[in-house]
Design goal:
Rossmann fold; 2 domains; ABC transporter transmembrane region fold
């Protein structure tokens, strides 16, 4: 129970922070709908019975007031209709608005450097969090919280109404209704917890495996694993179908249970009003009112059946997204270094989660403004980790880090299915077309863009489809040029480019980097040649440090891969 409250608390907090008034109004309208329905049914039964009895004698018929009850029935009918319409409009509008805010909050959380890195290899999981998990949370308000509150309220109204006929009758009926009416959904929710989670896992697995099949069908075909991947999807579908079957069986049992509950409570109400009538405590019209109120009071509890079936899915969704919603710590941001320095690292140690050894160990390094340094070393030596630390994406486990604002150009060129302008504006949202064209010209891509029929408004496909590898890298370079930061961090900026394109990119980069500080992580000679300092990383430690003009500098260059 403690874990459940911990997981659900961030979600409830967001619900209340964003649209508290609408959510409370929706709950109030839902309660008004149910209360009006109970009163309408009870008053109608009383009125029909009283009218029939009044017609037995002319004296009573002449004095019987039909107008006040008729007006009350019309009022309750109109109130029930209006409240139902308002409740549906308010609750669904508020829920959709909350889910939109929740999706935005979660997307921003996953877009932060540390969280995004954990999902880099599992993009299908992120898609599932933003879609199915968020959608599952609409049940929390619409099918769990509001129906439960309304059901308890209806039990209270029925208990008070029947208690006016006889206190023990009202207390006994209300106690049994709450005990059984809430007990059945709680038991069903507990039974459905595991199959609901299995169903959620199964759907996620189907989606991820299908995405892998579609996106990687060429690789799967070449590796002769296409049929195996198809069988994996079929297995996930069978797993999900079994969970669905189990949930359907539980729901059938709950439906049958509520039928028995309604029949038992209605029979008990009939016997009770019969005894009270025989004792002369109530009249026949009041007895009819009591039976119909008892019958109507059980209806709101039946609405909890759907929420019980989705309880496990809702809790699982809240558990998976709650850590990102409740995270209050900001991304690591290095402090400001001394005036003449761009960055300063003192005895820095960085360790990745579940890694056997630190990625960086006792690293001390500093660089003055305007200087260029190449960080070289074998794969896994810690070069990318060092850049992530300077960019503020990784906090140090030990030591002190200070750095100016930095822009990181990673090995991967991340382009989106958007226009060229939209991809450029990610770096500088306020840039005008002249600034965008200047950046493209500096990157050597302006002529190619101008040759396109739509120019900057040309739409790229997924991952930048429509551009060659060199053009994609130049577009990423143009985005870098739009970022006016004193420190540029480059992770193998020309990897995968042909020699001519790579040399042109590096030439343009050197021109634009005049007066800025560059940190280049590389194992290619042509990239390291831009630097006037070389730091050699080995096993997370800086083992060598040399300056241009020193023999160690040339020696370090000669050990790198040639152009």
């Amino acid at each position: 129970m403690t874990t459940f409250l911990k997981d659900i608390k961030p979600v409830l907090r967001l619900f209340l922070q964003t649209h508290r008034r609408e959510l409370l109004l929706g709950a109030a309208l839902s309660a008004a709908t149910v209360t009006a329905g109970i009163a309408l049914l009870g008053l109608s039964g009383w009125f029909i019975t009283a009218t029939a009895l009044a017609g037995l004698t002319a004296t009573v018929a002449a004095t019987f007031d039909v107008f006040a009850p008729s007006a009350g029935i019309r009022f309750l009918a109109i109130l029930r209709t209006a409240a139902r319409y308002g409740e549906r409009l308010t609750t669904h509008n508020a829920t959709l608005a909350v889910l939109a805010a929740l999706r935005e909050r979660l997307f921003r959380g996953w877009a932060s450097p540390g969280a995004a890195r954990t999902l880099l290899n599992r993009p299908a999981r992120l898609l599932f969090r933003l879609t199915a998990d968020i959608d599952a949370l609409d049940s929390l308000y619409l099918r769990i919280l509001v129906p439960a509150a309304v059901a308890i309220g209806s039990a209270l109204v029925a208990s008070v109404t029947l208690g006016l006929m006889h206190p023990l009758f009202g207390l006994f009926f209300g106690f049994c209704l709450v005990l059984a009416g809430l007990g059945l959904p709680l038991a069903a929710g507990r039974l459905a917890l595991k199959p609901a989670r299995r169903r959620a896992y199964g759907i996620e697995t189907i989606r991820s495996r299908t995405i892998d099949l579609v996106a990687g069908q060429t690789d799967l075909l070449m590796a002769d694993r296409l049929a195996a991947q198809q069988q994996a999807i079929v297995a996930a579908d069978a797993y999900t179908a079994n969970a669905d079957d189990r949930l359907n069986r539980i729901e059938t049992g709950v439906t049958f249970g509520f039928g028995l509950l309604s029949a038992a409570l209605l029979a008990a109400a009939l016997l009770s009003v019969a005894v009270l009538m025989q004792a002369g405590a109530i009249t026949a019209p009041v007895a009819a009112l009591g039976v119909l109120v008892a019958f109507a009071a059980t209806e709101p509890f039946a609405a909890l059946r759907r929420g019980a079936m989705e309880f496990g899915r809702t809790i699982l969704a809240a558990k998976r997204i709650a850590p990102r919603l409740s995270a209050t710590e900001a991304d690591f941001a290095p402090g400001a270094p001394a005036h003449e320095l761009t960055f300063a690292l003192r005895n820095i140690t960085v360790a990745h989660d579940r890694a056997a050894r630190p990625a960086l160990l006792d690293v001390t390094l500093e660089l003055r403004r305007g200087e260029h340094i190449a960080v070289v070393g074998s794969s896994g030596a810690g070069k990318s980790t060092l850049l992530s630390l300077l960019a503020g994406e990784l906090p140090p486990a030990a030591g002190i880090a200070a750095a100016l604002d930095a822009t990181l150009l990673t090995q991967r060129t991340e382009l989106f299915q958007d226009t060229l302008r939209g991809n450029l504006l990610l770096a500088a949202p306020d840039a005008d077309d002249d600034q965008l064209r200047d950046a493209l010209a500096a990157a050597g891509l302006l002529a190619d863009v101008d040759a396109l029929p739509s120019g900057l408004d040309t739409t790229l496909g997924e991952g930048g489809m429509g551009l060659s590898g060199g053009q994609s890298r130049r577009l990423a370079l143009a985005r870098l040029f739009l970022r006016d930061t004193p420190l540029w961090l480059l992770d193998e900026p020309t990897e995968g480019l042909d020699g001519r394109t790579a040399r042109d990119v590096l030439h343009r980069l050197a021109l634009k980097a005049e007066g800025r500080t560059l940190v280049i992580a590389t194992h290619i000679r042509r990239e390291a040649a831009l630097a006037d300092r070389i730091a050699v990383l080995d096993g997370g430690r800086i083992t060598e440090f040399s300056r241009r003009g020193e023999a160690a500098f040339e020696k370090a260059l000669n050990r790198l891969r040639p152009d």
